[in-house]
TrEMBL record:
InterPro entries: Ribosomal_bL12, Ribosomal_bL12_C, Ribosomal_bL12_C/ClpS-like, Ribosomal_bL12_oligo, Ribosomal_bL12_oligo_N_sf. GO terms for cellular component: cytosolic large ribosomal subunit. GO terms for biological process: translation. SUPFAM superfamilies: ClpS-like, Ribosomal protein L7/12, oligomerisation (N-terminal) domain. Coiled coil: none annotated. It holds the Pfam family Ribosomal_L12. NCBIfam families: L12 (TIGR00855). This is 50S ribosomal protein L12, chloroplastic. The keyword Ribonucleoprotein applies. GO terms for molecular function: mRNA binding; structural constituent of ribosome.
Amino acid sequence: MTTKINSIIEDLKSLTLLEAAELVKQIEEIFDVDASFNPSSGMVMMPTLDDNISSNQVEEKIEFDVSLDVVPSDQKIPILKVVRSLTGLGLKEAKELVESAPKVIKEGTSKEDAEEIKVKLEKEGAKVSIK
């Protein structure tokens, strides 16, 4: 054994029972392992590589839909103008979209774009959600 390992073992020998329990707890948390004894196998259970990957990878949503939820009747015209500028729809189509709220007005957009659209519409008085 190397001197480093010998040094660690000597340090472990000097630990009290409470210190050893705290060490085990810290090792379990830091390395995401389970040091409990499994009587059926007689071995310490450790996560597989696949377990580590799946627990560390949280799927981040990259595409968002912007939904126009509520359009106050006194704010239809300014909201209609914003919807037209965002969607490129004609006057008739944009009017139908605004009047049929709640309705998705932009699909599969980035988070930044969705937030920007939401701010523009809310500035004119609309209620908007991002899904």
